[in-house]
Specification:
Multihaem_cyt_sf; single chain; C_GCAxxG_C_C family probable redox protein; mainly alpha; 9 helices; globular; CGCAxxGCC_motif; about 150 residues
Amino acid sequence: MSEQQQNNVSAKELAGQNFKAGYNCAESVARAFRDLLNLDVSDEALRMASGFGGGLGHAGCMCGALSGATMVLGMLQGRDSKEQSRGPIYSSAQEFHSIFSEEFGAACCRVLNPHEFGSQEQRHTCLKITGTTAELLSKYLQDKQLAPVK
């Protein structure tokens, strides 16, 4: 995506576009922020998000969009060595989990989206959650001055 295109699209829109293009919820959020923030993260590295869709491979556990958002926080605040403190990333991850849970009433995929996987209802619900999660993360990053995002 060109810089001009990135400047004209919000995190919510880009995550939604990614989801509509066939990426899962975790991939959609992680890719959107990689592109919007011009993070030095390869497509190969983003493959790690693939298993988180459907609440960890359709296990219905933690929402993949929330997992993707947590990966973005890790890209921005994660440790480069074991000597560095875990405090900043743990604090941000926990705080964003609370924001997500407050917005949606839960963080568990099967609670958030009880529809059959692959159904129109499931895809619609995941699209909404994915876009809203990107929007929440964008606001969080701005509020915490971690990154400038639309």
